[in-house]
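ARCHIVE CARD
Drawer: 12
Card no.: 0347
Subject: one protein chain, sequence and derived structure
Cross-reference: see card 0346
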Amino acid sequence: MLRLRPYKSCDAEIIAGWITDQDVFRKWGGNLIGDYPLSAEAIDRKYRLENGACPEPDNFYPWVAVDEDNNVVGHFIMRYLHGDHRFLRFGWVIVDHTLRGKGYGTEMLRAGLKYAFEILDADVVTLGVYVNNDLAHHCYRKAGFTDTELLERSPWNQMEMEIRKADYFA
């Protein structure tokens, strides 16, 4: 069983290891590796959060997923899309590549959705997935997200997905 906790500086090196494995990254991130912070220092600078302090609504709100032994196994960012705090976007959904395909991503997203809908009282949560990333697309669907639109961006088309509060509680 995974639990979520806010990102801490000590997590940056682990996350950087997943992102800087460029062969793995390019499978699901295309040629956008330059958009990601690639070192522990850059990650920590990008979204520094200690002791669970929530940043301003238009900033990233990073989380890590930890297993029963407190090992960091995944990471994602929650970001408010509108000032009314009713629409959230999950981004940078990353699972330790040695654990992919074992359900960790789905479990992490479900924990994030529980937090988004039950604690933050969001109405909608969205995310995007590259259409060439079948494993992530399957994971997102298992967590309850549905396809909403295809954004054609050459060469990496992205599918926008969402889940609404009413569907989550159905």
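Annotation on reverse: The chain is about 30% helix and 30% strand. The domain at 3-168 is CATH 3.40.630.30 (Aminopeptidase).
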